[in-house]
Amino acid sequence: MIPIQLDNISKTYGESAAAVPTVSVDFTVEQGEFFTLLGPSGCGKSTLLRMIAGFIAPSAGTIRFADRDVTKTPAHKRGIGMVFQNYALFPHMTVAENVAYGLRLRRVSKDTREPRIERALQRVGLEGYGKRRIDQLSGGQQQRVALARAIVIEPEVLLLDEPLSNLDAKLREETRMQIREVQKAAETTAVYVTHDQAEAMAMSDRIAVLAGGRAHQIDSPQKVYNEPTTAFVARFIGRSNVIPGEVISLKRGTAVVRLGSGDAEVRRHAAMPLSAGEKVEVSIRPESLNVTSAADADLRGVVRSREFLGSTAVLEVDLEGVEQVITVSTPNVDVAAGDRIGFALGAGAGWVIPE
After folding, report:
1. Is 21 exposed, middle or buried (0-12, 13-18, 19+ CB in 10 A)?
2. Three-state helix/strand/coil letters over 27-75
């Protein structure tokens, strides 16, 4: 396993001066790390993965695997294993023949090949499946064959492009931890692409949240969730209430912010330059908001509509003239359009985002 370093990597399609970069980033994936590129469709995450793989050449910048500059190295000479979104398995081959494909290309002898194939299948939970045809397997099993084929060559870098997107929700949950376990057992550095926030949060050592071709935040799942650096990150990761406010006063690690007609003490980054009177946005997670009487509330307003979503409820609320969609983790809250409502912030709730 090795670190991956991207130095000012960008990809621009078109030759005109007005051409817009598809992606432009600068970061390092640490040795043995499970690093996820997370973002909406069109943000550049798959383009970035393909540049790391060597399928697409960057327009500028360098890519290093440890101390080796691989920017211009062909994909087949980079020492990578790749799992594609559609698995890219050969239907006319057996499971074992699919797994062996990369070893055959590398001219690994049969005596060496066979135990490595068996070990790879055992790691993904498909021991004894070697002679089966691909069309005899479920979608989840095919995904595991693709994973076995990627790790059997013992790659220094494992790249995964939305490998769970074709599975149903329950199977995705069952499979994502297996991928993480296989990656750790194989002792390889992994870069994983997904648009699914739950996948990224559950599997990753660190997450790069991408939008508009740039990284908004690169951090641990806990930091990305609890301390988002932009309003986009706050809204994209889970459900967050991003509410405009004004700084009233500052304390060490916190700020008193006016939100609507009430004042609330919320957390802030200690190094964040803030001053009284500054306009900010505050991210408040649903589980940190408690519905209460308007008289005892940090936030007060009038309900415009209510939507039940099972584990949460979404309320459209007029906060003293500011229309705000607020999500709470108390789905059975008994309110209707026109009711006055109050929200109390739990201890340590709220995180200041510079406007």
Report:
1. middle
2. EEECCCCEEEEECCCCCCHHHHHHHHHCCCCCCEEEEEECCEECCCCCH
The edge-to-edge listing of strands for the beta sheet with 313-319 is 289-292, 340-345, 299-308, 313-319, 322-328
Pair 112, 74: CB distance under 8 Å: no
- Can you give the length of the chain in residues? 355
* Distance separating alpha carbons of residues 320 and 173, to the nearest angstrom: 42
- C-alpha 282/C-alpha 350 separation (Å) is 6
Q: What is the DSSP letter of 136?
A: G
CA distances from 258 to 93, 245, 255, 281, 342 (A): 65, 5, 10, 10, 15
pLDDT at 50: 92
- What pLDDT digit, counting tens, does each position of 111-150 carry? 888 889 998 898 888 888 888 999 888 888 888 898 899 8
For residue 163, give the nearest of 116, 199, 210 by alpha carbon: 199
Which helix H or strand E contains 200, and what residues bound it?
helix 197-203
> For the whole model, what pTM was predicted?
0.85
In the structure encoding, which two tokens stand for residue 125, read together? 């939970």
Residues 63/4, Cβ–Cβ less than 8 Å: yes
